[in-house]
Amino acid sequence: MEYSLDSNIEKLKSDFKKMCETVMEMLRGTDILILKSDKESAMQIIKSDKLVDDAEMDIEHGCMRLLLRNQPFARDFREISCILKAITDIERIGDQASDIANITLSLDCAKLSTKNIVKMSSLALKMVKDSIESLINEDTSLAEKTEKLDDEMDLLFTLSCDEIVETIKKDPDKANQAAQLLMIAKYYERIGDHAVNICEWTEFENKGIRNKFQ
Amino acid sequence: MKKKKEVEKFDLSQEAIKINNVNLYYGAFKALNNINMKISQGEITAFIGPSGCGKSTLLKCLNRMNDLVDGCKIEGKFEIGGQDIYAPKFSLQMLRKNVGMVFQKPNPFPMSVYDNIAYAPRLYGIRDKTSLDEIVEKSLTGAAMWEELKDCLNKSALALSGGQQQRLCIARALSVEPQILLMDEPTSALDPISTAKIEELCSQLKQNVTIVMVTHNMQQAARISDKTGFFLLGELIEFDDTEKIFSAPSKEQTERYITGRFG
User: Fold this and answer.
1) A143-180 confidence digits (pLDDT tens)
2) CATH: 1.10.10.60, 1.10.600.10, 1.20.1250.20, 1.20.58.220. Which one for A4-207?
3) Cβ contact, residue pair A3, B248, below 8 Å
4) Cβ pair A75:B259 closer than 8 A
5) Is residue B248 scored above 50 in pLDDT?
6) Each residue of A111-144: b (16+ CB within 10 Å) or e?
């Protein structure tokens, strides 16, 4: 006999995967926008943010309903808690992808040095993809590897800041544009942090231990 | 005047209850199989498990309620405060005074509220009205019922509601200042409000009384106990901190039972 809580949790997981796919699509889009501005693609990403917000509300309601009605324990409790927490990080990643797209609308990337930001964008994509995979596949080892990439992200952020400061020093006319680029770098750095949070929830889901990765 | 009987107390400071290699048989049927556990002072310990798993049997062993059951044979050792409670010369009076019990169904005596509480102290030789009044007030206060019942102490206990009767039974158990309170599904016959009152009461009592409770209500075990033991077919499958048992149990059988997938 199928246990009804199982099917409800499966439905939550399926909705969570769809939400993650939408955010991954948005993030992939920003990766391209950094190299080449494209108003139509940017607008598409901004529009997708509404879908992510709606998905978060639906999944949150589903989780809270199961917590209220089933008062789950053990793995059921951990799975539902993890989804409830992870959707906040996924939603924030969606917000940041949307913000990056918004900035690119007024940015002429071709005239700026974006070498390190491009690297940050690729790394953010990998970190988010792997953190989601680790949570969905209950892969603690992948979560630990992904978390370690955050040091690289922090280093790239420092290098991007240096690169941007250099640009402003050389050509003060580009200061306004360079400041926008700095915002983008900060967003990618924050996206890395959200990926680390998701990895921490993977560990909780599998081991029942809630630890901050050091 | 009859003198008050002084009954020795257990020294629970090191370890309240220690159960060592216990097997229990009802005739040829082995109801408990090699049970080992230690229960600390000032904690609430919950015993959970499906019907017939041996949790109530084990609870009853802790104040020797199985002694009169025909064909019941116990192997192993039960220690309270380091004393073997099944030793031949062990005082049953000391055990029953210090280890109280509350059952699933409220069982007040068919007498007044006051007399229910005063019954056991009188048995222990307390006849002085002032002392008995003090005990009745203290016990009812301990069971959070004093304000509710102070003006109707002469009312028949049988006229109280089910929830009040059960709390009166707890107050009655408290009248002899037990060190350990055994509770066998104490709220299974009660409504949510009475249940909440008893749970709150247990949380307050544990400062002075070590509580061991059998419950079929997983949420109740998770809410109020510090430690939880899961029993299955006469075996103690897992015994750990309640938070650990209900969030990440070590054993598959525990996980299956508490998530409702058992069977």
Assistant:
1) 999 999 999 999 999 999 999 999 999 999 989 999 99
2) 1.20.58.220
3) no
4) yes
5) yes
6) ebbbebbebbbebbbbbbbbbbbbbeeebbebbe
